[in-house]
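Hi L.,

You mentioned the student needs an example of a multi-chain input paired with its predicted structure. This one should do, with 226 residues in total across all chains.
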Amino acid sequence: KQEVTQIPAALSVPEGENLVLNCSFTDSAIYNLQWFRQDPGKGLTSLLLIQSSQREQTSGRLNASLDKSSGRSTLYIAASQPGDSATYLCAVRLQGYSTLTFGKGTMLLVSP
Amino acid sequence: EPEVTQTPSHQVTQMGQEVILRCVPISNHLYFYWYRQILGQKVEFLVSFYNNEISEKSEIFDDQFSVERPDGSNFTLKIRSTKLEDSAMYFCASDERAGTDTQYFGPGTRLTVL
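Structure written out for the whole complex:
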């Protein structure tokens, strides 16, 4: 059974810092990995999707990397802003399945 | 930009009552999903639906749950007899081609069972 773990559970940084969020998964036979943002009491906004054949994806200040063999992904946020404050979720899709398995998330607080 | 919509945003019900949660997936998407998130816990998969039938379901999705696509746009989740432990945020999601595409999530329905 696929398990997804995210470290740290919470992170507090001053505005302007670069930061890294970590995601690990136990079954490396994944099809893709998706990073989401969740604001309190709200839905999930997709940030980046990395296919298993890819090493990284970039969107603006966000860069996600994938090391399938070691079961790890990182989300790098450059020059953090207070508006980045949210919970960031990592989710993996196994080969042969359409469903996503989620981590518990990293709660990020960026202070002005 | 197209988005997944869900109604209602919040539903309060008494234990034992039936509830129907509604979703309108993105129009050209073919795969539909329900997930739930109990407060403070992980988002959990419930069921996936393709070509008018269930393609996968989790152990959570027991006989109390059912899904339906009653017309060309709506996708519903019915809980037949709600329990206290069904209180959660329920998310609908859709994607165009399962396994290759981004899954897009709706804003969720918060279900409170009293």
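You could point out the following to them. Chain A has a mean pLDDT of 94. The two ends of chain A are 41 Å apart (CA to CA).

Best wishes,
N.
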